[in-house]
From TrEMBL, chain A:
The lineage of its organism: Bacteria, Bacillati, Bacillota, Tissierellia, Sedimentibacter. It comes from Sedimentibacter acidaminivorans. Keywords: Lipoprotein, Signal. The keyword Signal applies. This is Outer membrane lipoprotein-sorting protein. The keyword Lipoprotein applies. Residues 1-26 form the signal peptide.
TrEMBL record, chain B:
Keywords: Membrane, Transmembrane, Transmembrane helix. This is ABC-2 type transport system permease protein. It comes from Sedimentibacter acidaminivorans. The chain crosses the membrane at residues 21-38, 58-82, 103-132, 144-167, 174-192, 223-242. Coiled coil: none annotated.
Length: 419, 247
């Protein structure tokens, strides 16, 4: 049987298309270790935030130089997702010194432990805070994380195949080991630069009493291991990254970061508030920034520049007249020295509504042009206050910030006057 | 076989007479020198070693495989097909005793030889440079295997450029379209990473798969089959168009 040139060419073309399509489909369907691990982490976060009632997590982060531990932080976290309660215990060992931290957090209160005198601080929460807040959020639901994932997918390239998957007894084990030859030069350069100038700069190295990484800095390796249980939850993970660098004497050191996480006691974790009976406890109310002790008069100087010197031309006053349940009422006025001809002498009353913001005490006033304006007032130092007029407050998208446009030379800090 | 050999030698002779070969050599050498200077400066002034303790030659390959290597390969492919059709010099080859199939094969072999030579030159330059940069001896085996593996995706791109050269009417449009296709494929890989298995440009750095402790052989086989599929497809389509093209 003899084929014509055209038939043979078409057959070859069809063979090429078939081979390409079949292999590419198989490759897409099989995916990569990186994709599987990523999916597993996303499933874990989704289940922990939505499906389980409670769980515990243990996180250990340690930094080492030449195998010797420099600092180690151990976090024991307990989450009661259903009852919106969380307990955090942290222990940091740095240069032999131990620092401990304890926090209990539920819908109504936050309790901190002061380990110096074993006392507790209890903050009663404002109800305003409790709207639909989860005790643990899924970071993969954030828009930012979705964009970061796309960028990572685009640039990880063939490195996504360095993660190996082994399955046994219904569990999956992900192992990845990135050697120095596989680390992309750009990633190496950026990581080394950040390490030298940001993470362990000369000042930090001095403070921690460790050798400063001066030259020949490069990422030595990065490795990790994660185990996914039968339910698709990553029950444990270990990650290690090492950087090699020479100090100012030319001696080579290996700086390592070890990170491990264990997710355990799923639906078997009980989160209870600490027993405060017989303990030294200080009670506070969250958000009550101002109470009666702030009622009083505050002032600062109005100063103008004349030639090459400063001249006091008057005083600004703030009088806080009343504070009831966090609602502040007061007045602002300016008094100029006799003989000084001011363009505009401001004077107005202001008030705040406690429930208006959880981040700021927002004051409302009407300016000399009869415009309704807002400002911010907050405490500074022990007894003084800081005031910003004509402020624009942004508390959208979970964040909060403000900017203000006061007159030139306006001093925001007002000093308490004790008669 | 003798005819194919003659066509091949003829094509190699033609390539060797092109100024683009000298340009390719000079630019490859310059790239190695510039990269070596950057690496040396970063290490001396900022204390950062871009290549770590690894092979400078692999850094060079990673950079050039997405830049100069495809660029000069496109030049050669366009010249050997669209260029010869445009200036009618293809007549001398096609009116000879060799069939179009043998001419096509001879040209493809010549392109493959050019790619191999280009890779060898870059590899030698970069190994020499790395001897000055690093006190440690490079891992010659890994470098050799990496450059060997780098040949296949570049060759597939060359076949794509040959196909485009046989579709378009002139060398300029062939060159522009080849570069455009290359950039579109790279862009698609960045924007839609989920379809990366269907894009041959995703595998330009597939040699990285053999650099680590864990070597994913099944992935290497899948990529090889994908590239082979592309190769057969481009070769068949390129030849079909070459066969049909009027002088």
């Amino acid at each position: 049987m003899k084929f014509s040139k055209k038939t043979a060419t078409l057959c070859a073309f069809a063979l090429g298309v078939t081979l390409l399509a079949a292999s590419a489909f198989a490759d897409t369907m099989l995916g990569s270790g990186f994709q599987s691990l990523k999916d597993s982490i996303k499933t874990t976060m989704s289940k922990l935030t939505n499906d389980v009632d409670n769980f515990s997590a243990n996180i250990i982060v340690s930094t080492k130089i030449d195998g010797q531990v420099i600092s180690e932080s151990t976090n024991d976290l307990k989450f009661d997702v259903t009852n919106k309660a969380k307990e955090t215990r942290e222990k940091i060992v740095k240069k032999g010194e131990i620092t401990e931290f304890y926090k209990y957090d539920n819908e109504n209160q936050i309790i901190y432990k002061n380990f110096e005198d074993d006392s507790y601080n209890v903050y009663e929460k404002r109800k305003y805070n409790n709207d639909n807040n989860k005790i643990v959020e899924n970071p993969f639901e954030e828009e930012q994380a979705k964009d970061a994932e796309k960028i990572l997918d685009a640039f990880v390239g063939s490195l996504q195949d360095v993660i190996e998957i082994e399955e046994s007894g219904g569990k999956k084990m992900y192992t990845g080991n990135l050697s120095e030859t596989q680390i992309p030069p750009l990633a190496n350069a950026i990581a080394s630069f950040v390490f030298k100038y940001s993470i362990l700069d000369e000042r930090n190295a001095d403070r921690l009493d460790i050798p400063y990484p001066k030259s020949n800095i490069y990422l030595l390796n990065a490795s990790g291991k994660a185990i996914e249980d039968e339910e698709g939850i990553v029950e444990s993970g270990i990650f290690t990254a090492s950087i090699s660098a020479q100090d100012s004497k030319g001696i080579e050191h290996i700086y390592s970061l070890d990170f491990s996480v264990d997710i355990k006691d799923i639906n078997n974790t009980v989160v209870v508030a600490p027993n405060l009976d017989g303990q030294k406890v200080t009670y506070n109310k969250e958000g009550y920034e101002f109470d009666n002790k702030y009622i009083g008069k505050y002032k600062n100087d109005i100063v103008k520049r004349e030639g090459n010197s400063f001249v006091k031309v008057g005083e600004r006053f703030i009088e806080i007249i009343s504070i009831e349940d966090g609602n502040v009422k007061g007045k602002y006025y300016e008094v100029y020295n006799e003989g000084y001809d001011a363009d505009n002498v401001r004077s107005f009353d202001f008030y705040s509504n406690y429930d208006e913001s959880i981040h700021f005490t927002i004051i409302h006033y009407t300016n000399d042009k009869s415009e309704n304006k807002t400002g911010i007032i907050h405490r500074t130092g022990t007894q003084n206050i800081n005031v910003s007029f004509n402020a624009i407050i942004d508390e959208e998208n979970g964040g909060y910030s403000y900017s203000n446009d006061d007159e030139e030379g306006f001093d925001n800090t007002f000093i308490r006057i004790f008669e | 076989m003798q005819i194919i050999k003659s066509v091949f030698i003829n094509e190699i002779f033609k390539i060797s007479k092109k100024k683009k070969i000298t340009a390719a050599l000079i630019f490859s050498m310059l790239s190695v020198i510039i990269a070596a200077i950057v690496e040396y400066s970063l290490n001396n002034f900022a204390g950062i070693r871009v290549t770590g303790n690894s092979e400078f030659s692999i850094l060079i390959l990673t950079i050039l495989i997405y830049s100069l290597l495809p660029l000069f390969t496109t030049f050669i492919c366009v010249d050997m097909f669209a260029g010869e059709f445009a200036d009618h010099t293809i007549k001398f080859t096609l009116t000879g005793p060799a069939s179009r199939a043998k001419v096509f094969l001879g040209k493809i072999l010549a392109i493959a030889t050019f790619i191999i030579c280009n890779l060898i030159v870059v590899m030698i330059f970069s190994i020499v440079a790395s001897l000055f940069l690093n006190s440690n001896l490079p891992n010659f085996f890994k470098i050799l295997v990496s450059y060997f593996m780098a040949f296949l995706p570049i060759f597939i791109f060359a076949l794509a450029a040959v196909l485009i050269s046989n579709i378009t009417r002139g060398p300029t449009s062939a060159f522009m379209l080849s570069i455009f296709v290359f950039l579109v494929f790279i862009g698609l890989n960045l924007v839609f990473p989920q379809i990366r298995s269907f894009l041959f440009t995703s595998f330009f750095d597939w040699f990285r798969l053999i650099l680590g402790n864990y070597i994913n052989y099944s992935k290497i086989l899948r990529i090889f089959l994908i590239l082979l599929g592309y190769g057969i497809m481009f070769c068949a389509a390129g030849y079909y168009l070459f066969e049909k093209k009027d002088i």
